[in-house]
Amino acid sequence: MTVSRFKHASLTVADMDASLAFWRDLLGLGLLGRGIVEYEHLDRIIGASHTRIEWAELSIEDGILLELFRYLEPQGRAVRPEPFDPGATHICLEVRDLDDLVDRIHAAGYSTRAPRPVEIPLGDWKGYRDIYAIDPDGAIVELTEAPSG
Question: Which of 9, 21, 71, 83 is exposed most, by the fewest CB atoms within 10 A?
Fold first, then answer.
């Protein structure tokens, strides 16, 4: 196998403050840094000329990061894929007290795909409770709670 470790996931966002309110303030990820960059090597990695990017790095655990990018140049267009659309992705975070978190998500004005967490009745995930929440840009975050005991 050539993959040795999962390092980070990245989301492109429209409004950094709104995204930080969701990912940092509501979900509790730690902000490691924030700034604006214009790097020729990023232009080459991304495959675009003259990028200007506002970024934030958030800590999940054990060195795994969530990277938020807001492209100041070039500006993109919003996409809102459904979970079943080819190319759609989601990020899964294991949490404690899922019911309380879902209540806080709804109280803050964010939506979930189901009204309440769903318990998985069979298979490798039997007993886990899951829900899909939607971030300010339509990205899907799966929140999962392990069975007690």
Answer: 83
Which residues in 5-147 belong to E strands, given as ranges? 8-12, 30-37, 52-61, 64-73, 90-94, 118-119, 129-134, 140-145
pTM beyond cutoff 0.85: yes
Three-class SS state of 42 = helix
- The pLDDT value given to residue 62: 86
Written as one letter, the residue type at 91 is: I
What residue numbers bound the domain in which 34 lies? 8-73
Q: For the CA atoms of the chain, what is the radius of gyration?
A: 17
Q: Indicate which CATH number applies to the domain containing 64.
A: 3.10.180.10
